[in-house]
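dumping this here so i dont lose it
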């Protein structure tokens, strides 16, 4: 019997074994970088993560121009995940923070499964 590692944040589901993301029951197609950023932020829910830390830890590299790349990748990621009044990633002066929605649109309570 194989175990799966699935984390749920409201109606956002991240399957770390199959490398897939579902919003509600709809699959969300992410690039490798978007997926890596999402997993990195989601595993640090509530903590502010600097752009530099995201670049170094989630993508394994650092270059000055890469900091702008992080902003672009986050912008694309947010456009795929955040519909209506849903917010999963907050943009802050110091970096970004993953937040769990209080109540999802389909009635699922927020939290990890």
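and the seq i came up w/
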């Amino acid at each position: 019997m194989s175990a799966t590692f699935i984390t749920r944040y409201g109606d956002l589901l991240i399957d770390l074994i199959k490398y897939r993301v579902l919003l509600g029951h709809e699959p969300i197609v992410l690039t490798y970088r978007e997926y890596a950023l999402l997993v990195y932020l989601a595993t640090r829910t509530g903590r502010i993560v600097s752009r530099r830390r995201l670049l170094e830890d989630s993508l394994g590299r650092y270059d000055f121009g890469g900091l702008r790349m992080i902003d672009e990748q986050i912008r694309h990621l947010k456009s795929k995940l955040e519909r209506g009044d849903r917010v999963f990633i907050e943009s802050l002066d110091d970096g970004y923070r993953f937040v769990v929605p209080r109540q999802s649109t389909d009635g699922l309570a927020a939290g990890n499964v």
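The domain at 6-97 is CATH 1.10.10.10 (Arc Repressor Mutant, subunit A).
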